[in-house]
Amino acid sequence: MAGSGNAGALSRRPVGTVTRGTTGVNRLRRSDRQLVADPLIRARLLDAADPLVVDLGYGAQPWTTLELAARLRAVRPDLRVTGLEIDPERVVPGRDGVSFARGGFELAGLRPTLVRAFNVLRQYPESAVPEAWATVLGNLAPDGLLVDGTCDELGRRCAWILLDRTGPLTLALAWDPFTVERPSDIAERLPKALIHRNVPGEPIHALLTAADRAWAQAAPVATFGPRFRWRVAAEALAAQGIPLRIFRRRMRDCVLSVPWAHVAPAR
């Protein structure tokens, strides 16, 4: 058990419901790579007096929590990581400097700098998202961040929303350039707050439609590989005024990242 908050954690009733717990080794590698590289996340971890990270709802096995800890320690070697699961049968002994405990959206009394919740809210109704977000955000450290994301079973399609106490900040999509045919194929893995909004008239639908169009127009450079083709497509989207974050360094994944205001539900 990690930190002084654990005594209170034992007396708190976890908030949430037990989900399927599906997980897999290296499933969250794409999001992990982006979390390590994200300037805001790096800054918050480096500035934190007590850099605590919570992996919320890690599933039936703790592999992705252990992987997250190993990757984020490249940013801050002394950070603490706790995996929380609402199902007591999934709570395992600590290992490799990572602790595990029972907890839900209330975060078991912890006050982390960063919370990752992947494939958790996907199993809830859309109407439950605002309350779940509010509960997690209300229990963060003052400058804390929440990552609410979804991915497929093999981690080839990955999408997440980054939030702070003010609400959503950005949406990011990342996918395997060699197995995903077009950007909109990731729509089935959008976070719960957006997955039902991929219909005409909604901003997320307009973004994915524009991304597919730019991808098709970049077909002449396909001979240089899908990563290069996506870079050309993304630069074309940016030239149209879409506020994409353009990654200048070599990327292993195709990544599309925009401010939340650009994709927030229209109604």
Can you offer a commentary on this structure?
- This protein is an alpha/beta fold.
- It has helices at residues 6-9, 29-37, 39-47, 63-72, 129-137, 192-195, 203-217, 226-239; strands at residues 52-56, 80-85, 98-102, 114-118, 145-151, 157-164, 167-175, 254-259.
- It has one domain (6-260).
- The protein has 8 helices and 8 strands.
- The protein has an 8-stranded mixed beta sheet, sandwiched between helices.
Q: What's the quick description here?
A:
InterPro entries: SAM-dependent_MTases_sf. By secondary structure, this protein is α/β, with parallel strands linked by helices.
Question: Which helices and strands occur, and which strands form pairs?
Answer:
Layout: H1 6-9, H2 29-37, H3 39-47, E1 52-56, H4 63-72, E2 80-85, E3 98-102, E4 114-118, H5 129-137, E5 145-151, E6 157-164, E7 167-175, H6 192-195, H7 203-217, H8 226-239, E8 254-259
Q: What is the count of distinct domains?
A: 1
What summary fits the major beta sheet?
Answer: 8 strands, mixed
User: What integer value in Å does the Rg equal?
Assistant: 18 Å
Question: What is the straight-line distance between the termini?
Answer: 42 Å
- Arithmetic mean of pLDDT: 91
Structural class: alpha/beta
Organism: Nocardia jiangsuensis
GO molecular function: methyltransferase activity
InterPro entries: SAM-dependent_MTases_sf (IPR029063)
Keywords: Methyltransferase, Transferase
